[in-house]
Specification:
- With about 400 residues, the protein is α/β, with parallel strands linked by helices.
- It has ten helices and 20 strands.
- It holds the Pfam family Methyltrans_SAM.
- This is Class I SAM-dependent rRNA methyltransferase.
- InterPro entries: PUA, PUA-like_sf, PUA_sf, RlmI-like_PUA, SAM-dep_methyl-trfase, SAM-dependent_MTases_sf.
Length: about 400
């Protein structure tokens, strides 16, 4: 099958030769035709040497490479890719795990499928497309999921309405594309949580913090714990299972606090160790002197684009400085950034600056990242979006 040909400017082929999956619009010299958004195009260097096949899209990232070899991109091509991703999760012990039935099945570039996210919550697949090309093959993806999971799959929910570029003329709408789920309750390491994929953030729950929540549990015994930006309370009920003597959950969203309370009640009904507050995080941190000896800082992405990177770093610095100033002596801070444009080094330097500002003696106990079902393509370091540190504050 022939695809529209895209030729790069001289010298702009080096990143693709290193298997980085993005072609920026400024690297394109010429296109032999007018591809529609979502079309597969063939990318060549200035000397007419083939480099890759990818989805074309209007914007800064003009082509997302799906293959570095010349193949036919058909239904079988996508089935092979999704089955490879599935097998990787089988090898990780996530499929048919009696204690965990929530995991990421497809992680975009990490699984060589740029623009596609699929999270599994028990018998429901929540699909989210970030490119027009992936959205145009949504029916194919649904059929592949049905083939792989068979009768185990009860529902597929597509949540791409807010993630497809707004200029694209595909009019995505959130909704079930197969079946309908009635349970809405999933398991993670034996703990229950309610998932709201219809109105909640991302696909309904932050499955990328699974391993870090399990680590927090080990630090929680006898501690007074503050879970900032708690969303649906994941860190909170792990802290309770770990033996925390008190857990407070804080989020500016009333709906998040409702979900947190429901999730705590699912796991620890009537437990008076927990309370939750719908207030601004920065205001809450202003006056908590010595109340807590374990604080979790897991804010939403402060920066989604490089043009606001400096403001984001200042936000992380201010947030962490407040925690350093307020935490009890001998306290522990779990601090995170989920901003892809904030590098691991930049985040660490920002936390270092916050520590220096506080004048406290701080040591790094653990360096954290995303779990294995959120793999990082070694040729696409931007995929390592989740950064975290566990800090001991004297």
């Amino acid at each position: 099958m022939s695809y529209i040909k895209v030729v790069l400017k001289s010298g702009k082929d080096q990143s693709l030769r290193r298997f980085h999956p993005w072609v920026f619009s400024g690297a394109i010299k010429k296109m032999y035709g007018e591809p529609a958004e979502g079309d597969i195009v063939s990318v060549f260097d200035n000397k007419n040497e083939f480099l890759g096949l990818g989805h074309y899209q209007i914007g800064s990232i003009a082509v997302r490479i799906v293959s570095f070899t010349e193949v036919e991109v058909n239904d079988q091509f996508w089935e092979d890719k999704i089955r490879k991703a599935y097998q990787l999760r089988v090898d990780q012990g996530l499929v048919d795990d009696e204690t965990t039935n929530a995991y990421r099945l497809v992680h975009a570039e990490g699984d060589n499928m740029p623009g596609l996210i699929i999270d599994m919550y028990d018998d429901t697949a929540v699909v989210q497309m970030h490119s027009v090309g992936m959205f145009l093959i949504k029916d194919t993806i649904d059929e592949i999921l049905k083939k792989i999971f068979g009768d185990q799959l009860k529902a597929i929910y597509n949540k791409s309405e807010s993630t497809i570029p707004y200029k694209a003329k595909v009019n995505p709408e959130n909704g079930y594309t197969f079946g309908k789920s009635e349970t809405r309750i999933a398991l993670e390491n034996g703990l229950k949580f309610r998932v709201d994929w219809e109105k909640g953030q991302k696909t309904g729950f932050f499955v990328d913090q699974r391993d870090n929540r399990a680590l927090l549990e080990k630090y929680s015994k006898g501690k007074s714990v503050l879970n900032m930006f708690c969303y649906t309370g994941g860190f909170s009920f792990y802290a309770m299972r770990g033996g925390a003597k008190l857990v407070h959950s804080v989020d500016s969203s009333e709906r998040a606090i409702e979900l947190t309370k429901e999730n705590v009640e699912l796991n620890y009904p009537g437990d008076e160790r927990h309370d939750a507050f719908a207030v601004d995080a920065f205001k809450y941190l202003d006056d908590i002197k010595d109340q807590y000896d374990l604080i979790i800082l897991d804010p939403p992405a402060f920066a989604k684009h490089n043009n606001v990177l400096n403001n984001a770093l200042q936000g992380y610095k201010r947030l962490n400085a407040k925690a350093f100033e307020q935490i009890k002596p001998g306290g522990i801070i779990f601090t995170f950034s989920c901003s892809q444009v904030v590098s691991k080094d930049a985040f660490r330097k920002t936390v270092f600056s916050a520590a220096a500002k506080s004048g406290r003696n701080v040591r790094i106990l653990n360096q954290l990242t995303q779990p294995a079902d959120h793999p990082v393509n070694i040729y696409h370091p931007e995929g390592e979006y989740l950064k975290g540190l566990v800090l001991y504050v004297e």
